[in-house]
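We were asked to recover a plausible sequence for a given structure. The inputs and outputs are reproduced exactly as logged, with field labels preserved.

PROBLEM: sequence recovery
POSITIONS: 357
GIVEN STRUCTURE:
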């Protein structure tokens, strides 16, 4: 996939995923640029670009890993260094965008993904390539073009080529929120769908945030009574019993999601599916964060195989759990870079991709 005018393009990588950077550069027929990213003794990030980027298109590969805050600072400093060195175009290639789960207002918190978007734009990025954002509305937080690529064609191909007797499978939504994604997969594979209802996230405690605190005792002569006693009181949300909507008995159950990080909910869902008669259970996700003791939990679970892409490095986790398999998506990222550099349309990369993917 050699690209013309390769002297005008340079790929730089941070410390998050150098292996993916090498694969992308190899597919493009170029080498990874000379850039040193180190951490000083006081934990400050130092960036030294070892070759000229003046007038060149710079593509900075940096994904989100367990060392997420350092990953972000490396990306911001590298982008700003290219900006002050007169790069013509600075494109961030961030397969997994950190903080994309924090895209909604919660209590007295903030929308962290919007803050990150502003920081990335101000650092000098002129374009962003990412993959399977947890919340698609995050694209609207950026003041620069964002290409949100999809890994679903690679995962669908894995199902068809690597899962024996996949025609006897059913696509499972781990919770009602992921039912649209599961439906999208099921329709293209011509399979049935099942939804696990009742397996919800633990609700955050509202008892300490002031919502239930009584109004302050003040003098009646200085305040107006608005009648708090007549305000409607909503019943507390109760966790319903876990139920599987759909038949999985004697079938292969395939759970699909955009990421797998804390695996406890996946393990719990797999146990329910096993009880309902599923004889083999797969989990497919784009981003395999696999934090904490996820490999051990997966190894001891009824899940037979966990399939993730290499948007996030997980070689250590694979050594701890033999069930983890990897699908390479470097060809998609390299083709996106080639098309952007040659000013070609990106729509070909989104063919047969639905909004629910």
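RECOVERED SEQUENCE:
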């Amino acid at each position: 996939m050699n690209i013309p005018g390769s002297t005008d393009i340079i790929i730089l990588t941070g410390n998050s995923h150098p292996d993916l950077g090498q694969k992308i550069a190899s597919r493009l027929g170029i080498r990874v640029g000379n850039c040193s990213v180190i951490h000083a003794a006081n934990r400050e990030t130092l960036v030294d670009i070892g070759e000229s980027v003046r007038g060149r298109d710079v593509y900075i590969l940096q994904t989100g890993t367990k060392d997420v805050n350092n990953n972000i600072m490396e990306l911001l400093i590298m982008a700003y260094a290219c900006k002050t060195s007169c790069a013509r175009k600075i494109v961030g290639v961030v397969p997994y965008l950190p903080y994309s789960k924090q895209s909604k207002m919660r209590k007295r918190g903030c929308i962290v993904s919007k803050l990150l978007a502003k920081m990335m734009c101000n650092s000098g990025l002129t374009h962003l390539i990412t993959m399977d954002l947890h919340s698609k509305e995050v694209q609207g937080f950026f003041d620069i073009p964002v290409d949100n690529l999809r890994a679903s064609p690679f995962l669908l191909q894995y199902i068809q080529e690597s899962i024996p007797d996949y025609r006897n499978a059913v696509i499972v939504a781990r919770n009602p929120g992921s039912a649209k994604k599961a439906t999208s997969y099921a329709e293209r594979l011509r399979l049935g769908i099942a939804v696990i209802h009742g397996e919800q996230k633990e609700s955050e405690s509202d008892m300490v945030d002031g919502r239930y605190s009584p109004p302050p005792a003040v003098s009646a002569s200085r305040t107006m009574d608005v009648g708090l006693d007549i305000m409607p009181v909503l019943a507390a949300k109760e966790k319903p019993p876990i139920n599987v909507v759909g038949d999985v008995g004697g079938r292969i159950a395939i759970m699909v999601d955009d990421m797998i990080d804390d695996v406890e909910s996946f393990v719990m869902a797999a146990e329910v599916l096993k009880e309902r008669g599923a004889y083999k259970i797969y989990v497919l996700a784009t981003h395999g964060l696999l934090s904490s003791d996820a490999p051990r939990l997966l190894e001891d679970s009824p899940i037979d195989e966990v399939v993730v892409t290499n948007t996030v490095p997980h070689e250590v986790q694979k050594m701890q759990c033999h069930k983890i398999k990897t699908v390479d998506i470097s060809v998609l990222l390299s083709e996106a870079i080639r098309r952007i550099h040659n000013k070609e349309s990106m729509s070909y990369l989104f063919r047969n991709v639905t909004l629910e993917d």
